[in-house]
Design a protein that fits this description.
single chain; alpha+beta; 8-stranded antiparallel barrel
Length: 284
């Protein structure tokens, strides 16, 4: 099993032009088209266990991957990942049967796995060797499709290859100076599952500051995919609640107030929004 340490960032519609001109990404990226099919049981056993199974078709061949949600907050996650090459498009059920997450669910789930949704996107990839870390930067643009439903992929993933996870936050802040972005909580797999079901929900947040900030990011993710204003309005209320919480630090309340105010504008996802979002995460 490999352990993936990754920070996910959602981008504005106009962000690509700014990102591709960024001084840190001067070298031409490695470009590849990735087509993925995600699997689960009819009852959603993997989703319930917070795991995702996919077959990825790449120019180099097919890969089968099982991921677990792992731990983290603010878009930064540490996930369990098992990945190996396979022949053809069919699932390698024998290889899956030996993995701890599948064994915990019971091998009976293997008999009912079926395709649920697909993701197709172009990935532009750079490997940045920084003073304190080695970080893979992946810019993904494409779509998630389930039956006739579709949502767009426009995101940046920063994956730590070497060094301290705090380096991911510093790099994100550097990008945020020029690129409209924000921390994103919901993975492609989670987005696809909601699209497949045609049902988007958001449970009430926990009481901690990190849980409340994650909830705000999740609400904005849901608004992106549904355009339902209730999710945006709930995010505004949450930020204003933080801004008026005297138990929090002055810095936390300042950033929350700025974010709540910006969300009342139609073009709220700006560089200022991203900078305040990332700075707010650092007050935890």
């Amino acid at each position: 099993m490999a352990e993936e340490v990754e920070l996910k960032l959602a981008l504005s519609d106009s962000a690509a032009a700014f990102l591709l001109r960024h001084e840190l990404l001067e070298t031409p990226p490695c470009r590849e088209w990735l087509s993925n099919t995600y699997y689960d049981t009819p009852e959603g056993a993997l989703e319930s266990a917070r795991a995702a199974l996919r077959v990825r078709r790449t120019p180099q061949g097919n890969l089968q991957t099982l991921k677990t949600v792992g731990s983290g907050s603010g878009g930064l996650f540490v996930r369990g990942e098992w990945e190996w090459a396979i022949e053809g498009d069919d699932l390698d059920l024998v290889g899956l049967a030996d993995l701890p997450p599948i064994q915990a669910m019971g091998n009976a789930v293997l008999k009912t796995l079926e395709p649920r949704f697909v993701t197709d996107f172009e990935r532009c990839r750079w490997l940045l060797e920084l003073e304190s870390a080695s970080i893979e930067v992946a810019f993904d643009q494409g779509s998630i499709r389930a039956d006739e439903r579709r949502v767009e992929i426009n995101e940046l993933e920063l994956e730590l290859k070497r060094g301290d996870p705090s380096s991911l936050w510093r790099l994100a802040q550097k990008f945020a100076e020029q690129v409209p972005l924000r921390p994103s909580i919901i993975s492609k797999a989670e987005r696809g599952a909601a699209l497949y079901q045609g049902h988007w929900t958001c449970k009430p947040p926990g009481a901690s500051l990190s849980a409340r900030l994650d909830h705000a990011s999740r609400l904005l993710d849901l608004f992106r995919d549904t355009r339902e204003r209730r999710f945006l309005e709930q995010a505004v209320d949450l930020y204003w609640g933080l801004a008026n919480d005297d138990a929090l630090s002055a810095a936390t309340r300042h950033h929350a107030q700025a974010l709540g105010g910006m969300l009342t504008h139609s073009d709220w996802l700006t560089t200022a929004f991203g900078q305040h979002s990332l700075s707010l995460q650092q007050t935890i």
